[in-house]
Specification:
Order of helices and strands: HEHHEHHEHHEHHHEEEHHEEHHHHHH
Largest sheet: 3 strands, antiparallel
Number of helices: 18
Structural class: mainly alpha
Radius of gyration: 30 Å
Strand order of the largest sheet: 7-9-8
Strand content: 5-15%
């Protein structure tokens, strides 16, 4: 890679090892340094070519005597490994940064202010902590929040009033999402909308969404518009990436994007049925993949008919992998229909031969009918049992959703208690927090009641169907 002449001169004037060059992830931002290498790297899509270009830049700096630090996101590690395989760079020292613990996070908030002679109003640090812990990509937004508090400081104090003025950390997250979304053209906005919805999960009967981690290739295929949007959202820290079983997974960087972004409730209302179906079928798809594409785990009956309807109305919102699962299910149904037709043909042949060999013909016909009935009942039972398995998966999702809700509730209550204890003048703020907590509790209770009632009816229907089969004695266990 060619570097600006000034870079070579700067390195030549310094002792070897005295200059440290930091490359902040592979997706370099065009225009930051103004050089050709940066612009080219910014225009390249993720892949070996981009990784090779950055690796070449690293080698050039190192040969000129600089020490180089490359900061990689989780989704870029594979790209980098492919680019440096078999070279000395593959043996370079690596340091994996883990998620900060509570003490470290508090230090990040408090120590810079302390060095500047600033102080937080009572309760403000706890409010920041309650909206920061357990959020995978919160640090960039926390940084912006602290800068704004500093800009609005008053007589050496970072205040609760300033924090409320710009909506706090959640307001910063929502503002960043709006800034990106509002700058897109209409078609790209639809792509971003679809990507965000794929990363949300709505339990049956639920009124709110929770973030959902998904494989990158499952929601944004390489080279697609969704992949380009995902890459930009990663760069803007609206998404975070991780590695799961050797694959890149992505999720929303902060729970505020699911709960506090005004656009999301409207999108959810418009697509609620599709989203509930999508996450239910995606769980079945993952089971199918985990079982090495076992045909017994393909969609059947009403589940397949629903999948075909969704595929017809939401083709652009269903990933290629999930569509392959639906198509494989359709193919199995067609194959089953052909087998049944052959059986009927065989039965017809048997009936024709009855005139010559009535006794033998009737025996064969009876056996064929028995086999057909057993086959029908067998697949019926499979469908019912799969339905019960789906219900169990949904129950697990609802339980996790309820647990998450309760954790948020606890945080809201703690925030209210802190506000009352350390800032008696903030009665309105504390009251609002408590009212929000009570409302969330009521929503959780209502969702649980609706779900339990619905689940009881569905399980009773399945049990009745299985009892009928057992009563007829058509299928043995």
């Amino acid at each position: 890679a060619e570097l600006p002449a000034g870079a070579y001169d700067a390195l030549a004037e310094r002792p070897r090892g005295s200059v440290v060059v930091v490359i902040d992830h592979l997706s370099l931002e065009a225009g930051d340094a103004g050089d050709a290498t940066t612009r080219i790297a910014a225009e390249l899509p993720p892949g070996t070519e981009r990784g090779a270009l950055v690796a070449s830049t690293v080698r050039t700096f190192a040969e000129r005597g600089a020490r180089v630090v490359v900061n990689l996101r989780a989704d870029e590690i594979g790209e980098w490994n492919d680019a440096v395989k078999g070279t000395l760079l593959a043996e370079a020292a690596r340091l994996e940064l883990r998620q900060l613990d509570e003490r470290s996070l508090r230090d990040i908030i408090e120590r810079p202010a302390d060095r500047l002679g600033l102080a937080f109003e009572p309760g403000l640090v706890d409010r920041l902590m309650s909206r920061t812990e357990s959020e995978p990509g919160v640090l960039p937004f926390l940084q912006t929040t602290l800068v704004r508090l500093w800009e609005l400081r008053r007589n050496g104090w970072l205040t609760n009033a300033a924090y409320d003025r710009f909506g706090g950390l959640r307001g910063v997250v929502v503002e960043a999402a709006d800034a990106y979304y509002d700058g897109l053209d209409e078609s790209t906005q639809r792509v971003m909308r679809g990507l965000v919805l794929h990363l949300l999960q709505v339990a049956p009967g639920g009124t709110r969404a929770t973030p959902h981690r998904a494989r990158l290739n499952a929601v944004a295929e390489a080279g697609s518009p969704a992949a380009a949007v995902a890459a930009e959202m990663l760069r803007r820290r609206l998404l975070v990436a991780s590695r799961e079983r050797g694959e890149t997974a992505i999720e929303l960087a902060h729970e505020a994007l699911a709960r506090d972004w005004p656009k999301v409730p409207r999108w959810l209302e418009e697509e609620r049925d599709f989203l509930e179906w999508l996450h239910r079928v995606h769980a079945e798809y993952e089971q199918w993949i985990g079982a090495d594409r076992d045909n017994d785990l393909l969609l059947l009956g009403g589940g397949l008919e629903e999948a075909e309807r969704m595929a017809a109305t939401h083709a652009a919102d269903i990933s290629r992998d999930l569509m392959a699962y639906v198509n494989a299910s359709v193919a199995q149904r067609k194959a089953g229909a052909r087998r049944q037709m052959r059986r009927r043909t065989a039965v017809g042949t048997i009936l024709v031969s009855v005139a010559a060999t009535a006794a033998t013909g009737w025996v064969m016909f009876d056996r064929e009918q028995t086999e057909l009935q057993r086959t029908r009942d067998y697949f019926s039972l499979l469908e019912k049992l799969k339905g019960l398995e789906n219900e169990r998966n949904i129950a697990t999702e609802l339980r996790r959703d309820a647990e998450t809700e309760l954790k948020r509730l606890q945080a809201s209550l703690e925030e209210a208690m802190v506000a009352l204890r350390d800032n008696p003048g903030a009665a309105d703020q504390a009251t609002a927090s408590i009212e929000r907590a009570v409302q969330e509790t009521r929503e959780i209770s209502q969702r649980q009641e609706v779900y339990v009632r619905k689940r009881s009816v569905e399980i009773e229907e399945r049990q009745r169907a299985i009892r009928d089969i057992l009563k007829r004695g058509d299928v043995s266990y």
